[in-house]
Specification:
Length: 476
């Protein structure tokens, strides 16, 4: 019985030894043929295992008396790297201390350092990276019209006797019955040696002005910070595009027709009229620009689609610079000039709200905003006439001037990061002075000597700019 048990143990040990040999690698040349199902895996590097004809003998690599059986992770290789896997070992000859990014030859290996870089980022760097990935930028073409200035006579209102000498001969109580005979200074009226007419600012038109508008939006935890700026081209308009109309004998019995600028004398309505027979030109120009900075808070009810309501709080600046120039001359004399200018700087805090209907295919939005601020402006009037001399007047003051703005827009996505943008824009304000209405056409007279006294008489006017804009919105 004991003999049979000894034989069985010996046979089991023989089989186990043979199986361990096959599991560890190919046998020596003198051993039996290797089992094809236990050969070296196809992904193993050729440098692992004994090469043919090597000095290694036996079942294990030279110097390794305790190799692990097949199927267990190999131990450290000669240079601190795990055979077959290539991962660095914790210990091993040739690499002390082990460096997972340097091989045995001292070459730096490629590695993914994103995780370590993120660990090294400061809170400021992380915030800047987040902002850079979500910034939005709008660039738009604008076509806006400026409300035409209030119609004003270029000059003072002349007396009735100047405009209609026949009606002036009647008693004043009869004037209402002959109101149809009363004339406007812009219609021809008789003067010595001919007829004359005055001009007003009615023909001025400031529509269809191009410009550019840009918006930069930076995301914040509580909403977004938006900076917007725009500038329009200089809008110019002339009063009389054809220049001075010349009369003829067929139109008027006298053969001369004059451009006229009626004036007051010592601040009193008079029949004194400045006449010009060579040229007359009047031009109005306007330059509008501005910007605003707003904090647009997160929606009151956050959601991906539907109606979103976002309160706004910010600051606005609006610049309005306008000029009114008159030039007239007589043959053989210097040019008479009148220059009136206003520089309006409106600024102050503003509040508003953004309403957006967001869908998968488009977004429709409306933004009403109101600024409660001031208008810090400068007004000047300069004039020169070769007969009565020159004058100059300047006023700088501050007024309360609210500004209202309204945008109605739609956005249509054409790319993951690009949207088409179309909008109607309106900006309006009040309590500003426009240059054509702030001139007091007066001359002083002392003992028959006339001197130039054209000066400022500040007015109050509304100002509206409105139109359409179109562009692209980029989301980075």
């Amino acid at each position: 019985m004991a003999g049979r048990l000894a034989i069985g143990v010996a046979m089991a040990a023989c089989f186990l030894t043979t199986g361990g040999l096959y599991a560890q690698g190919p046998a020596s040349a003198a051993g039996p043929a290797p089992n094809p199902y236990y050969g070296a895996p196809s992904y193993a590097p050729s440098s692992y295992g004994p090469a043919p004809g090597s000095a290694w003998s036996g079942n294990y690599a030279a110097g390794n008396a305790d190799a692990a059986p097949g199927g267990y992770p190999p131990q450290a290789g000669p240079c601190g790297y795990m055979p077959r896997t290539g991962y660095p070992s914790q210990t091993g000859p040739g690499c002390s201390p082990p460096n997972p990014y340097v091989d045995c030859n001292g070459m730096t290996t490629k590695s993914d350092t994103r995780e370590s870089e993120q660990l090294d980022e400061t809170p400021l760097e992380e915030a800047l990276c987040r902002v850079a990935r979500n910034v939005m930028f709008n660039i738009d073409y604008i076509n806006w019209g400026i409300a035409k200035p209030q119609t004003e006579l270029i000059g003072a209102q002349p007396t009735l006797a100047t405009l209609n000498p026949v009606l002036a001969q009647l008693p004043a109580e009869f004037y209402p019955f002959f109101s149809g005979m009363q004339k406007s200074p812009t219609e021809p009226f008789p003067v010595a040696n001919g007829f004359a007419r005055a001009y007003d600012t009615g023909p001025i038109s400031l529509y269809e002005n191009s410009g550019i508008k840009g918006t930069l939006s930076l995301p914040m935890t509580y909403g977004s910070a938006e900076l917007t700026g725009f500038v329009m081209q200089h809008a110019d308009s002339q009063v009389n595009l054809g220049g001075l109309p010349q009369g003829s004998a067929s139109n008027f019995p006298p053969d001369e027709f004059f451009a006229a600028i009626p004036v007051k004398v010592n601040e009193t309505t008079s029949s004194l009229v400045a006449l010009f027979d060579q040229s007359f030109r009047a031009e109005f120009s306007s330059l509008v620009f501005g910007g605003e900075f707003n904090i647009v808070f997160n929606p009151i009810v956050p959601k991906e689609y539907g109606l979103l309501i976002r309160p706004m709080l910010g600051f606005r600046y609006l610049g309005i610079q306008e000029e009114f120039d008159v030039q007239a001359s007589n043959i053989g004399s210097a040019t008479t000039t009148i220059n009136s200018r206003t520089i309006n700087n409106l600024w102050g805090p503003q509040i508003g709200c953004r309403f957006e209907l967001v869908t998968q295919w488009f977004t429709i939005g409306a933004e009403p905003r109101v600024m409660l601020g001031v208008n810090q402006f400068v007004s000047t009037v300069d004039s020169f006439d070769p007969t009565i001399g020159s004058s100059s007047d300047r006023i700088s003051t501050v007024r309360f001037a609210p500004v209202g703005a309204f945008d109605l827009y739609t956005k249509i996505p054409i790319h993951d990061q690009v949207k088409l943008y179309f909008a109607y824009n309106l900006i309006g304000t009040g309590n500003i002075s426009r240059p054509q209405q702030q001139i007091d056409y007066n001359v002083n007279e002392v003992n028959g000597v006339f001197t130039n006294d054209l000066h400022l008489s500040l007015g109050h006017s509304e100002f509206i700019v409105q139109g359409f804009s179109a562009g692209l919105e980029f989301n980075f």
